[in-house]
Amino acid sequence: MNRLQKSYLEEIKPKIQKELGLKNVMEVPRITKVVVNAGIGPFRESKESVQSFVEELSDITGQKVSERKARKSEAGFKIRKGEVVGYTATLRGERMWAFLDKLISIALPRVRDFRGLNDEAFDERGNYSLGVKEHVIFPEVNPNKTKGVRSLQLTVVMSSGDKDKNVALLRGLGMPFKKEEN
């Protein structure tokens, strides 16, 4: 069991239940999956760069990534229908907890001029999304050997549709949100 998962089950979950006044333990929000998306953009012309990025993304997520193909042709971007335009990985279980632990404790503190995450980036279902401008913040990527810096989009999908409950969960897990200035 991962360090963050153990902390969630033993400390954070009971604390959130008490803070939010929830009677049933099943009402406490939980993370169901983390989705990592990355577009390849102008690098798709270079097979070597794409292959290098796929390997780095697989190392970051801890599993094989799947291709995302264009649904329709777009002449302005020189994209044909069926052409690979990005890669994605859906993390659940142990890999999800390991990735979140790495993101919170190692990767985000490595971001230059980091002032905290925006706590308004929740969708209508209460899922949290954040963008990472440089994939080299993850420890698996050697910035000296990478063939181009790419951005990633991360979505943390949670069981509760309530934003306040989900904010409490992510704060409890140690997600570094911006401090409120009054």
Task: Please characterize this protein's 3D structure.
The protein has 182 residues and is an alpha+beta fold. The protein has one domain: Ribosomal protein L5 (50s Ribosomal Protein L5, Chain: A, 2-Layer Sandwich). The protein has four helices and five strands. A five-stranded antiparallel beta sheet has the order 2-3-1-5-4.
What gap, in angstroms, lies between the N and C termini? 39 Å
Strand arrangement across the biggest beta sheet? 2-3-1-5-4
Tally the beta strands: 5
Q: In percent terms, what proportion of residues is strand?
A: 15-25%
Highest CATH level, the class: Alpha Beta
Question: What is the C-alpha radius of gyration, as a whole number of Å?
Answer: 18 Å
Supply the CATH architecture: 2-Layer Sandwich
User: What is the string of helix and strand elements?
Assistant: HEHEEHEEH
* Number of helical segments with 4 or more residues: 4
Structure at a glance:
With 182 residues, this protein is α+β, with helices and mostly antiparallel strands.
Question: What is the fold's blueprint, element by element?
Answer:
Blueprint lengths: L2 H18 L10 E9 L7 H15 L4 E4 L14 E8 L1 H15 L20 E5 L19 E7 L4 H11 L9
Antiparallel strand pairs: 1-3, 1-5, 2-3, 4-5
